[in-house]
Amino acid sequence: MDLRIRVIFIFLLLLFTQLCGYSQNNLIPLADADSNFVRKHILPNEIRLFYGGQGNNISLGTKREGDPTLNGAIYTNTNDYVGIGITYKWIDGDLSYSLPGTTYLKEERSNLTQFKLGLSYTLRKLAFRGYFQESKGVIVSGTKNEFLSTPSLHEVKLGLQIIYIFNASKYSYRASLYQSELQMKTAGSFMIRLEPFYRNLGSQSGSMIPTSWDVDSRFGEQTGLEYLRAPGILFMPGYGINFVVPNSRLFISPVIFAGVGAAFNSYQAQTGKKRNTNLEYAGSFSLNTGYNGSRIYSKIQFNWNAGYAPLKPSYFTSNNIGLSLWVGMRFGDVENFIPSSL
Predict the structure, then answer these.
(1) How far apart are CA 96 and CA 43, in angstroms?
(2) Residues 139 and 111: beta-carbon distance below 8 Å
């Protein structure tokens, strides 16, 4: 907790030192955007550091015991993480790794490790973001926390988010997520996100369900479930808006998506290998707020993601919340520092 307090203090200190005035002299207009709403920093590239904490719940339930419910107990898979990112021209990349010993669980259940990598390419109307996430030591719980698996599950997620921005001339998606542009006036836009994905969740020691709960009357064909693999695709309409405090660099940028898709599941259970195609439902909300300075910027980022994947009769739900602090510094093009004689 002491480390978190120090990080928040550094954020407030950076914010205070930057709030000394407002100037447009270090901004340049963009040919493909309304300069009254969106401008670009003179220093086009960035390097950033971030620190945060997250809570995640993956629950396995069954419709034989009632309607599906979303488990709000996000402490079953928790950790703090640290990361680094870079923006160069139109490419953004971020990677993070979990910090050991930062969990609310007992020591014998706290071996969760995570690695995340994201790469983005953002145009005015289109944004592409590829991601990879690997988690080891994952726990699956019942929907009412009636059971917890051993902390030995392995989860891999990868995918590509393709986002179309309707009001791209006035709303800057880059200003919202990466602060590599500046939103001059408040503006928003409807968006559409198409997301092909692949996920793999499995155990290396038999069924992921504790023995006393792993019965046919509850889970049917998913009794003895050892792994679940699923390529799929999601279609998610959404909306984002950048709120700007007049004559300042302060911003508040919420983005929300929600939609439906399909997953093509294959899994190993007590009765052998099975396949199942089903609809999936997902939603996400992110909020970035901070100071978008000409050389240094800082922000606090909040993320929430949820999903529902039915298997008949069982189903998985996921619920993830994260809070992080970001500090970034801008720099010029590297090629400008290379001697022309080389």
Answers:
(1) 25
(2) no
CB of 81 closer than 8 Å to CB of 96: yes
289: CATH? 2.40.128
CA distance 5 to 7: 5
Separation of alpha carbons 40 and 28, rounded Å = 5
- In the predicted model, is pLDDT for residue 284 greater than 90? yes
Query: What does the DSSP assignment read for 78-114?
Result: EEEEEEEEEEETTEEEEEEEEETT--SS-GGG---EE
The answer to whether the beta carbons of residues 222 and 311 sit under 8 Å apart is yes
Quick one: DSSP state of residue 223?
T
What's the CA gap between 244 and 254, in Å, rounded?
12
The 10s digit of each residue's pLDDT in 97-148 is: 988 766 555 544 456 889 999 999 999 999 999 999 999 989 999 988 888 8
Tell me whether residue 39 is in a domain. yes
Q: 323 is in which domain, residue-wise?
A: 2-20+29-334
The pLDDT score that the predictor gives to residue 20 is 45
Residue with tokens 């007049």: 246
Assigned domain for 207 exists: yes
Residue 341 within a domain: no
Residue 110 vs residues 105, 106, 139, 200, 319: alpha-carbon distances, Å: 6, 6, 10, 21, 19
Structure tokens at 252: 């508040």
Q: pLDDT tens for residues 201-258?
A: 998 778 999 999 999 999 999 999 999 999 999 999 999 999 999 888 999 999 999 9
Number of domains in the chain: 1
Token reading at 239: 């909306």
CA atoms of 79 and 137, how far apart (whole Å): 12
DSSP lists the bridge partners of residue 218 as none
Look at the alpha carbons of 71, 72, 73, 77 in this order and tell me if their dihedral is positive or negative.
positive
